[in-house]
Amino acid sequence: MVSLIATQGTLFDLETVLDYGQSILNVAQELTKSLIEQRTISTRTIQAQMNRHFHGTAAEGAWQWKDAYEAVEAAQILYLRQKGYKRLLESPLTVLLELEKLVALCPTQTRRSEESVQLQQFSTPLPLAYLVAKAAFINADDLILEPSAGTGLLAQMAKLRGASLMLNELAPDRSKILRRLFPGTPLFGVNAEQINDYLAGKTQPSVVLMNPPFSASPKINSRNPDATKSHINSALQRLANGGRLVTITANWFSPANPSWRETFLKWQDFARVLLSVGVNGKVYSKHGTTMETRITVIDKVPADSNKIPCITETLNLPEILALVQQLPQRSSWERLDIKAAAIAKVVQLLKRTTVAQPETVSFLADDVVVLEYEVIEWTASEGLKDTLYETYRPQRIRIKDALPHPSLLCESAALALVSPPAPTYKPHLPSNIIAQGLLSEAQLESVIYAGFAHCEFLSGSYIVDDSLDNVTVAANSSENAVRFRRGWFLGDGTGAGKGRQCAGIILDN
Description:
Blueprint: H1 2-7, H2 14-17, H3 20-36, H4 43-53, H5 65-87, H6 92-104, H7 114-118, H8 126-135, E1 143-146, H9 153-159, E2 164-168, H10 172-181, E3 187-188, H11 195-198, E4 207-210, H12 227-238, E5 244-250, H13 258-267, E6 272-279, E7 293-299, E8 311-315, H14 317-324, E9 345-346, E10 361-362, E11 368-370, E12 373-375, E13 389-391, E14 397-399, E15 410-412, E16 428-430, H15 431-435, H16 441-454, E17 461-464, E18 471-474, H17 498-508
Parallel strand pairs: 1-2, 1-4, 2-3, 4-5, 6-8
Antiparallel strand pairs: 5-7, 6-7, 9-10, 11-16, 12-14, 13-15, 17-18
Helix pairs in contact: 3-4, 3-5, 3-10, 6-8, 8-9, 8-14, 16-17
């Protein structure tokens, strides 16, 4: 048998043995023992368990500290499943204080991964998650949507109250953890800034609990302060009439901030803000930051005035608990019998056939791959020649496994002397697009350069009038000022396949 394994290593490689989500869960189960015994989880304990279940050390690249912190958060969820139901029978203040003691047993998250910084992955501290769920007044017959589920701390607080869940998480590794922690729960993997569009035709939630990225958007390289507004607006659209949305945002996203007041006033046409209160920054200290945040509670019922209740000060959690307990009961929500648009598909993790998979629902294709390519050095030709045109192929990149264009392509001799920029953007496309040559090498180049452009903003800020026709330059601090994404011009001639190029760009997005 040993020789068989040695000769057939591809069947028993690390991908086969290691299921990331299950490995995190295994570590979490060990760490939960410390929490139940009210013992501090030491760095040495975490390292030992991570080394054991990831078959190597962090120094060897087997795992990152970001993975270890995810395991600690998963351990908190497992603790809640054992102790949380009894905890909810105690007084709210007692529950809050007990959760604060629990978090104090966990290590401070001092190290960030590149992904966590880019996507602003700051999970909800457990005491704050308790207040968010409590502000929603959750009932057992509720359907809860968490558009940015992370490791599931908010979701677990809702589940303790017997509600059903719909989860969404863009980060692949966190999705793998959620599949293990919440098997059988509908799980999506889309950009939550368009959650309403992606879930069109599917059941509407009665409650939305959310902690979206404050100023980061996928495929945008710079800070995007409009991200918070986009996340909340799309979630409000998806929320059933009469439902309640409770969100954590940066403290600056406030109806008292002139830059955002117009946004809140527009929401008042179909939704009523019940509470907006700042949260003291020390709440996030165990998550490696002391940034001040804000809790906002919104019911999806038309407001009867433009007065928006807002507390500009940042309060401690016991003070916020007192405000949450004074919130009005929820309105009756419209339960719409919308049949799910697609039959649920069991997610199978690639190359992990030896590990039994949980029957977790997903509505995304499982064959999407990152388009890999190599950036090459560009060298000009010897100068202008007698010919007007030269044969064309991508000059700065070589795309792995891409097929050449089925017909001859050319460009002007003058244009051939201009160096194209070196792209860094990598599209996500179904694998058969490349394998079957549905998009040629030149067409895939267009998808890459379009995404490369769309990652950036144009310089400056602008004011757009109500007609959406007139645009004027404005200061960045101006009220209602907006920024525009860079565009990309497709000027290829006949035979280049512009329709397919556009389809590829849409698929990537």
